[in-house]
Amino acid sequence: MIDGWSNSGILDIRNFREADCDTDHYLDVAKVTGRLAVSKQAAQTLDVERLNLRKLSELEVRKQYRIKISNKLTALKILSDSENINRACETIQENIKTSAKESLGLYELKLHKPWFDENCLRILDKKKQVKMQWLQNPNQSRVYNLNTVKRETRRHFRKKEKEYLKA
Predict the structure, then answer these.
(1) Torsion 16-19-25-29 (CA) sign
(2) Is CB count within 10 Å lower at the N or C end of the chain?
(3) What is the pLDDT of residues 113-148, one digit of tens each?
(4) What is the pLDDT of residue 110?
(5) How many CB atoms lie within 10 A of CB 127?
């Protein structure tokens, strides 16, 4: 189960037979020490403004964005006769960024709302009870009941997770 090079970093291994993983295997938990190498890019936190690019799929926002860019670039053509090429490139870039911020807005991160609520907890408890009944007296009707409850819990969890990811 363990490679030879990493066996010195293992502190504790436990086997949890009562963990309900919805399988016939047992849950193994290990405490492991180890060093992780952090890349230089990951260590630096960049405060980058993200634009809400999903708004570009809306027709009105797309038109508004095109109009703002064209207005700023036409104003830039008048002023850029005597400037050098580097400065002109910087001003074009700044104009595109400001028009995108104005028309698209910034991307807001989703607040993490847990999809696993009280209803999910009740359904999981019901599945555990049905499984314990089946373990105490394994007959055909209890196997059928266990399989239907497992199917219902999987459907419910998939549905709740889809709703969470859509929001």
Answers:
(1) negative
(2) N
(3) 788 889 999 999 999 999 999 999 989 999 999 999
(4) 67
(5) 18
